[in-house]
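Everyone, describe these C-alpha cells:
***
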Amino acid sequence: MPTSHPSRRTVLAGTAAAALTAVPGAPALAAQAREAGAAPYRWRNVVIGGTGFVTGVLFHPTVRGLAYARTDIGGAYRWEQRTARWTPLTDHLGWDDWNLLGVEAVAVDAAHPDRLYLALGTYAQSWAGPGAVLRSEDRGATWTRTDLDVRLGANEDGRGAGERLLVDPRDSDTLWLGTRHDGLLKSTDRGASWAPVKAFPAEASATGQGVTLIVAAGRTLYAGWGDGDGTAGSANLYRTADGTTWEAVPGQPSGTSAKVPVRAAYDAHTRELYVTYADAPGPNGQSDGSVHKLRTAHGTWTDVTPVRPSGGGGGEPADTFGYGGVAVDARRPGTAVVSTNNRWAAVDTLFRTTDGGRTWTSLKDTAVLDVTETPYLNWGEEKPKFGWWIQTVAVDPHDSRHIAYGTGATVYGTRDLTHWSPWIRGLEETAVRLLISPPAGRAHLISGLGDIGVMYHERLTASPSRGMAANPVFGSATGLAQAAARPSYVVRTGWGDHGNGAYSHDGGRTWTPFAAQPAVAKDAPGPIAAGADGSVLLWSFVHWDGTRYAAHRSVDGGATWTEVTSFPKGATPVADPVDPALFYAYDTGTGTLYASTDGGASFAARADGLPLGDSQFRLAAAPGRTGDLWLSAKGEGLHRSTDGGAGFARVGSCRSSYTLGFGRAARGAGYPALYQVGSTGTVTAVLRSDDEARTWVRIDDDAHRWGWTGEVVTGDPRIHGRVYLGTNGRGIQYGDPA
C-alpha cells in the first residue's frame, strides 16, 4: 500500500467472478457430493445465539419484514420473516477467502428490492488480502463477486461506523464505497467495476479512518471523514449535490472538527440530517461525543446532544462515552433514536426523541430485558446489561415501535419500546477455540469460546440453559480438558476476573475454582491437560502478546502447583488417554516432541527433526490407545507416531493438515473415525477417514465453507459420522451424514 495520497491511486476495473449458485437442497447436495467424490452432509449451527459484535442492522426501506445484519468477523445475514430466523449469506466463502468474512458495509436498493450489496474485508493490514464487493439480484441467495485491490477493515477500529456503501438514490447503477485508506470509490455499473473519486477533497492516509459513512439526504449525498485534525476550518463532513463535485459542508458545528462522525440518518419529513460524533472511532476508546442535526435546506446546525459526557470531578464520578448509532422514524416526523457507546460507568443506552431533539427519553430506564433464549447474556450476574458497543440502531420503517440495536454480543429488539429480547435466532458469530465431545453423560458437547468462556451443551438446538460456565466466569477460554478414563472430571482455564482455572466432577455441568493458581496464570492463562485418571494437571502459560512461560503441575486438583522447568515453554500439553504417567508436548520452534513418563514431573526430548512451525501446529492422541499420536503441521502435512513419539512418519494421503480429531468408529472398523481440516489435493476442506487415514472423503460442500476453520475439529464418540467444527466467527458447526 502506498504511504501518501492513496486516494489518487488506480483502483481495479473490477474482476467479476462467475455468479455463485444458490444453496442447493439435500438431494442436490447429495448429487453434488457424489460427483465430487465426497460424502453428503447436513450442516447446522450448534445454537448459542449471537455472541459477537453486530456492527450493522438495516431494515429495507420498502419491503416489510426484510432486514439485514452485518458482523465484524462472521459474515452477513438476511432476516426471513416466514421462518423468523436470520439466514447466513456468506458461508460459501472458503479457506482462501477467510479475510472476506468481515463485512465492512451493506447496501440495498430502494427501487429494486431484490438487489443487495456487501463490501467485504476483515483487515486493512498489509498481511491481509484485498477486499471484495458481492452483488446479488435475489437478496443474497446467489452472488457475483468483484475483487478490489484496496483493503477494508471490518474488524478494525471504526467497524461500527457507517454505512460506507450506498446505492445512489438518483441512479440505481451508481454505487459509492468509502474506504479507510484509499478515499472514496465509485461504480457506475452496479458494483462490477470501481474507480477512485478524484474530486473528493479529503486526503487519505495509510493509518487513518478515511470515509466513515455515506448517506443520502434527498438527492444530496453526505460522506463522513474520520481523519480530521481538529484545526480551525478542518472538515469531517462532505457533500455532493450533483454526484460530480464535492465540498466541505459549511458551518460544521464547533467542537466536532476533532471528532469522528460515526453515523448519520436523514429525516425526509423535516429535511434534517442527524449525525453522531465521538472523539474516537470506537467501539473502544471513546470518552466524549455529541449529536447534531443539519437542516439541509437552510444549512443551519443545531446541537441536540441528549446527555453530555462528563469527566467527573468535584466528588462526582466520571461518565465518559461517545455517541454511535442513529436512526429516524420514517413514519413520524421529528422522531429519532441515538445510542451511547463505551459508557461503562452508567451503562450504554438508547435515547429517543419525538420532537426533533429538543427532549430525549432514555429507553434503558424503562426497559424489561428477557434473555431466556440466550441465558449467557446474564454474564454470571442476576440481570443482563442493556448493552455495550452499541454502534448501530435501526427503526423499522413499517412499524415505529419495532426498534433494534446491535451490541458486542447480540441484537436486541422491541415491539413496544419497553420489552426487549434478543433478535438473534439463526445468527451465530462465536470464535471457537476448544471442543470436547464426552463419551458419556448428559452433554454431547462442551465448548471453549472466545469472549464467552465455556459452555455445556445438553441440547445442540438451544442455547445452553446454564449460560456461560460460572464459578468463575471467563471471558475467553484458553484450555479445556477431560480425563480420558474418568470423563466426569473436566478442567478449564481462561481469562477471568475471579480466577483463571476451575474443575468439574459432573462432566462440566457445575464448576469449582482451583484452590490456588500459579502467579503467572493471571496474565497468561494457557492450555491445560488432565492425566488419564485425572490425578495430574499440567498447565501451560502463554501471554496474549505471545510470551511463553514455564508450565506448572498439580497432583492435588489445583490446591498446589509446581513449576516444570523441562517442559517446553508455552507448548500445549497432551495427556496419554490410557497411561496416567504419560504426557506429551510438541515444541514447534525446534521441531521436537517431548514426553514425560513420570506424570508430567519431567520431560525429555523423544524425537526431533520434525516440521518447524508456529503455535497452530496441533498434537492429538488417539482415544483408547497409548502412544498413538497425530501431528497436524499445516502445509507440512499430517504425521503419525505409534510408539509414543519416538518416531513419526508422514501420512501420505494428506497434503496439508491444520487440525484433527476423533469420533466413533464406523461399523466394522477397528479404529476411530478421523476428522480433519486439511487437504488431499488443492482444496482445504473438512475431511473424514474411516480407514485410519488411508483414504479421505470431503464432508463439507461449496455452500458450507465458513472461511478459516483451522482451530479445532472433533467427532462424536457416540455417533458415527457426527462432527463438530470450530469456526472463527460462524460459531460451532455440526454435521451429520445426509
Remarks:
- The longest helix spans residues 26-35.
